From TrEMBL:
Organism of provenance: Rhizobium alvei
Alphabetical keyword list: Coiled coil, Hydrolase, Membrane, Protease, Transmembrane, Transmembrane helix
Subunit structure: HflC and HflK may interact to form a multimeric complex.
Compartment(s) of residence: Membrane
One annotated GO biological process: proteolysis
Gene3D superfamilies: Band 7 domain
Keyword Protease: yes
Pfam families cross-referenced by the UniProt entry: Band_7, HflK_N
Record-linked SUPFAM superfamilies: Band 7/SPFH domain
Physiological role: HflC and HflK could encode or regulate a protease.
PANTHER family: MODULATOR OF FTSH PROTEASE HFLK, STOMATIN-LIKE PROTEIN 2, MITOCHONDRIAL
SMART domains: PHB (SM00244)
Protein name as it appears in the record: Protein HflK
Amino acid sequence: MPWSNQNGGGGPWGGGGGKNQGPWGQGPNRPRGNGTPPDLDEIIRRSQDRLKNLLPGGMNSGIGIIVILLLAGFWLTQAVYTVQPDERGVESVFGKPKDDVSGPGLHFMLWPVETVELVNVNEQQQRIGFSANDRQGEGLMLTGDQNIVNVQFSLLFSVIDPRAYLYNVAEPGKTLTQVADSVMREYVGRRPAQDIFRDNRQAIAQEVKEAIQTTLDRYRVGVVVNTVSIEDVSPPREVSSAFDEVQKAEQDEDRMLEQANQYANKVRGQANGEAAKIREEAAAYKNRVVAEAIGESQRFLSVYEQYKKAPDITRKRIYLETMEKVLSSSKKVVTDTNLGSNSVLPLLPLNDLTRPADKGAQQ
């Protein structure tokens, strides 16, 4: 045998191989009796022979070692994985997920018995109704007033339960898209087209967000919807020109209504100003008339008080003052009748005597 030595021992490296003897012909913890050192080259050669016998087909030992190292490296690359800060890892044993979720960092698993799937937990955007190659059709929806509109919207969502996101539904991304599209079609079908185009778009987006979240919670997808935004609403391409005309007419209607409101406000303001002026004048006239009446009544009362003290004198004074007012504007000529009619010249121009007084009064 190639491993037999001069002692003819039975060990694989020439030792005695007897009881309490080591592989080099010595007992445990005892030096060799003959003091001969082992042949290192022969030991290496014998090890290579034994390894060659273990390898299939007796291939070269160097190639076998390289293959083993490659297999070990490949296994190590599969068994060790890294989770990024925006990711979470879900490990599974023979396809059954573990309860724990791997956080950011370096992790180890027993591959291929254990596998891992990484899930992005950052906020993501899902756009719905945007068809490729500029083709419409995916976002066409029927409104409550029997109009067809093309709705393009997007939603921002985050994964809060990676385990549920991966294993509760078969295709979570596709499920999210289908749920969002179905809910949007339902709410668009309840509203007239005018609400979708301009009037109530924000309120519809909020209602759609809440309905999508309710449906996803019922499916236990492990996703939270942060925002739903209706980005564009347009008519189908076949009727876009007619729709533009309708929109233009509605804009003209709004413009004319605005102008009418401005004119009405202007006229209403002028009328209110005139009414306020008339009310102020009426109030001033009222105050003046009341003040005059109060003054006249007080004067009358003062005269009456004097009249009660001396009725004859007061009556005579009132008579004289009244006659003075009456005769001051009269055109009569008073003559003394006691002188007789012969004392007055028959040709006395009485009318001419009164003219200067009339002119002076007129001036």
